[in-house]
């Protein structure tokens, strides 16, 4: 007798990416109207430009839901309460602190969470899940938010202002491949100057991941921490699931701003350079038949 609850859950997971893509598809009219309103006719008729604009519009509505679902893992990760893919009650690793680089910051969905880590932030409320932060010294003093999508970068700038962290948060409106190029933006991030890198669902979207993850590695101080929450290539769940993921990936990047489903991000991270410690695992509560399995954890340089 099949376990119908599991069968239903498997089907939901298989259909999930198509539901996500259809929501993006439904944002095409709003994207067209937005581009016409902003007189961006060139983007309207450019395949890659339109794809980027569509993602910016889509993520503005869908991103908050994705964040709500991810918060139960990402907030503990930033607090140093995740190890081996398991969320612990107490601090078991290093909370995010110092000079932080957020890769692919999008429209600033996580800015409110970062605001609660900043120095002198009011941390009296233990109900928000940020307990133990002060006692472990998880204080952010400076942030760079790297975001090349012009729609998202503009929203990010506004969001950090609205939240009141624009004094410590600098928007870097270029791709990660250009952060060390002072001609591409109004600044430069020196190698070895970053205490913590935070990447939330973004290494799937950057170009040339092997090369650019190495570039990020160079920016990190020795002893610095890299906080990872990424969806990755299927590595358990069988050959058929892997093939299905590759099939979905034929269409997925066009509706999701170039996001790639089948990246072996852990391999790319490990290949970036030597790490003292790599703690990456699939979140303990995720089933093996996820079409979008995740890896969560911290790498210590
Ligand atoms: C799925 S979104 C996640 C955004 C954000 N981290 C969040 O959780 O809401 C992926 C982000 O990566 C950004 N991205 C794409 N190419 C990039 C690049 N070359 N460098 C940095 N970020 C990039 C996209 O513009 C997009 O905002």
TrEMBL record:
InterPro entries xref list: SAM-dependent_MTases_sf (IPR029063), Thiol_S-MT (IPR052356)
Keywords: Membrane, Transmembrane, Transmembrane helix
Segments crossing the lipid bilayer: 18-36
PANTHER family xrefs: METHYLTRANSFERASE LIKE 7A (PTHR45036:SF1), METHYLTRANSFERASE LIKE 7B (PTHR45036)
Protein known as: Phospholipid methyltransferase
């Amino acid at each position: 007798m099949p376990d119908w609850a599991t069968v239903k859950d498997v089907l939901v997971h298989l259909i999930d990416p198509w539901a996500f893509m259809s929501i993006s598809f439904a944002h095409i009219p709003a994207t067209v109207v937005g581009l016409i309103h902003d007189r961006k006719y060139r983007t309207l008729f450019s395949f890659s430009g339109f794809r980027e604009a569509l993602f910016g519009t889509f993520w503005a509505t869908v991103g908050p839901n994705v964040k709500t679902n991810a918060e139960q893992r990402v907030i503990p990760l930033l607090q140093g309460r995740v190890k081996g893919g398991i969320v612990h009650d107490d601090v078991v690793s290093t909370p995010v602190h110092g000079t932080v680089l957020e890769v692919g910051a999008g429209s600033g969905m996580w800015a409110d969470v970062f605001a609660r880590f900043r120095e002198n932030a009011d941390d009296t409320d233990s109900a928000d899940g940020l307990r133990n932060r002060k006692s472990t010294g998880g204080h952010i003093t400076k942030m760079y938010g790297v975001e090349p999508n012009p729609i998202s970068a503009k929203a990010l700038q506004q969001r950090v202002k609205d939240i009141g962290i624009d004094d410590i948060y600098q928007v870097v409106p270029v791709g990660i491949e250009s952060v060390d190029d002072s001609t591409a933006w109004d600044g430069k991030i020196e190698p070895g100057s970053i205490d913590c890198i935070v990447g939330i669902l973004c290494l799937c979207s950057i170009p040339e991941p092997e090369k650019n993850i190495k570039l990020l590695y160079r920016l990190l101080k020795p002893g610095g921490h890299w906080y990872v929450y990424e969806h990755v290539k299927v590595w358990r769940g069988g050959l058929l699931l892997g093939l299905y993921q590759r099939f979905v990936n034929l269409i997925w990047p066009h509706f999701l701003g170039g996001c790639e489903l089948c990246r072996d991000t852990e391999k790319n991270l490990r290949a970036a350079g030597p790490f003292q410690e790599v703690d990456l695992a699939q979140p303990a509560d995720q089933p093996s038949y996820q079409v979008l399995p995740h890896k969560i954890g911290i790498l210590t340089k």
